[in-house]
C-alpha cells in the first residue's frame, strides 16, 4: 500500500507537470522573432520542483511537460520535439546537480546555468539532425546570449513564487522532500547523523 507521503509527493509532481505543460504550450504558441528563443517560462515549474521537492524531481517535470505539450500540439516525435526534450533533460539534470552538490549559486545562478545548457543541448541536437555539426559553432553566440536574460527572468519569477507561497504549503512540500523550514525562500536539510540542520 502506498504511503500518504509518497502519494502526496506524486500528487504535487502531477500538478507541477500540468503547470509546466500549460506554460510550455503557451510558449510554443507565442510568435518568436528567432525560432529557438523562448522566454523559458515552462522551466519555472522545474526550478520550483527542484527547490521544494528535491533535486532529481525536476527531471520528470521537465520531461513530462515536453511530452504532454508535444502530444497536445501534435508534435510528438518531430525534430522540434527531440530538441525540446534534450534541452529539458540536460537543463533539469544540470540544475538538479548544482542544487544537490550545494554549489555556491543562488536560484538565479542555477536558473541561468539551466538556461545556457538548455540552449546548448538543443543546438547540438539540431546540428546532429541536419548532419552538419560545424554550424553549431557559428550559432553558439546567438543561442547563449538570449539564454542570459531568459535564465535570469525564470530565476526571478521562481524566487518570487517560492517566497510568496504560504508557509504551511512550503512546509508541507519540504516535509515530503525531507527538508525542514529555514529562512524565507531557503530551506535546510537535517543531518540524520548529527541532528543538525545544514542550510542549502
Strand and helix layout:
Layout: H1 4-29, H2 43-52, H3 58-73, H4 79-100, H5 107-129, H6 134-164, H7 167-177, E1 179-181, E2 187-190, E3 197-199
Antiparallel strand pairs: 1-2, 2-3
Helix pairs in contact: 1-2, 1-3, 2-3, 2-4, 2-6, 3-4, 4-5, 5-6
Strand count, sense and barrel status of the largest sheet are: 3 strands, antiparallel
State the CATH topology.
Answer: Arp2/3 complex 21 kDa subunit ARPC3
Segments where pLDDT lies below 50 for 5+ residues? 180-200
What is the helix/strand order?
Answer: HHHHHHHEEE
Assign the structural class, choosing from mainly alpha, mainly beta, alpha/beta, alpha+beta, or little secondary structure: mainly alpha
Discrete helix count:
7
End-to-end Cα distance: 33 Å
Rg estimate, integer Å: 17 Å
Q: How would you concisely characterize the structure shown here?
A:
This protein is mainly α and 200 residues long. It is 70% helix and 5% strand. It starts with a helix and ends with a strand.
Structure explained in plain terms:
- The chain is mainly alpha-helical and 200 residues long.
- It has one domain: Orthogonal Bundle (Arp2/3 complex 21 kDa subunit ARPC3).
- It is built from seven helices and three strands; from the N terminus they run H-H-H-H-H-H-H-E-E-E.
- A three-stranded antiparallel beta sheet has the order 1-2-3.
- A hairpin with a 6-residue loop joins strand 2 (187-190) and strand 3 (197-199).
- Helix 3 (58-73) packs antiparallel against helix 4 (79-100).
- The longest helix has 31 residues, at 134-164.
- It is globular, with a radius of gyration of 17 Å.
- The chain starts with a helix and ends with a strand.
